[in-house]
Amino acid sequence: MDVSLEKVADPTLIEMGKNLKEAMKMLEDSQRRTEEENGKKLTSGDIPGPLQGSGQDMVSILQLVQNLMHGDEDEEPQSARVQNIGEQGHIALLGHSLGAYISTLDKEKLRKLTTRILSDTTLWLCRIFRYENGCAYFHEEEREGLAKICRLAIHSRYEDFVVDGFNVLYNKKPVVYLSAAARPGLGQYLCNQLGLPFPCLSRVPCNTMFGSQHQMDVALLEKLIKDDIERGKLPLLLVANAGTAAVGHTDKIGRLRELCFPSRHEEGLSTHAVAGWQAS
């Protein structure tokens, strides 16, 4: 990763980039020494012992980590090679280091930086997925975003939910429609996060006669929605697949949107296409 750091003004960032480059070079250039020592047994320095009186410098720590990664005497010589992570791997490692450095900034600088990052990424995502005035929500747990969408749908469809709470849900039970090709356990996770009973979850089978066997049966979904409305239930959310985890099957998103929104002036069933973790 031969990128010049001359244009970077922050000396801390320059030092961090150089240290990362030197550390990776030390690990990647250790293949020759690893192969020479491959037949040797563990030395006394590899055996756990009491804490030393003085600390270790960075070079010694990296060498120790290197020995732990490649010092197994039972390994074959070919398996002891250092993984070449490439330029993208260097960028990912630098991103982790940069994130740790940003967390040390004072509150005002951190707020200014995160606000700019949030606004830019939100704009990019809205343009990619053709959403107007969208809002990005970043989360660590891969299913947390879908639970957030469900909460927003509940607050949107039940106007008195903030005041009356779950009493409004009891009077008109919500229904969440989920494809049978969805990730196992996704429906149970949503019910647990939202505090809803499992009967609020309706699984929509995939096609059995016409179309892909991994796509949601639109005709059957339409029948389920009509039946639930006749029973006094409220169709709340439809979770479709925009690329399944297995081979990337995609539901008929356009047809599903037409089913959820029969008219542009009519409030319909909320739709959410699960991509991201489903596709990756």
Automatic annotation (TrEMBL):
Compositionally biased tracts (Basic and acidic residues): 29-40
Transmembrane segments: none
Family matches, as SUPFAM superfamilies: PLP-dependent transferases
Region (Disordered): 29-50
Domain of life according to the entry: Eukaryota
Entry cofactors: pyridoxal 5'-phosphate
Keywords annotated in UniProt: Lyase, Pyridoxal phosphate
Classification via InterPro entries: GrpII_AminoAcid_Decarb (IPR050477), PyrdxlP-dep_Trfase (IPR015424), PyrdxlP-dep_Trfase_major (IPR015421)
Full protein name: Pyridoxal dependent decarboxylase domain containing 1
Source organism: Rousettus aegyptiacus (Egyptian fruit bat)
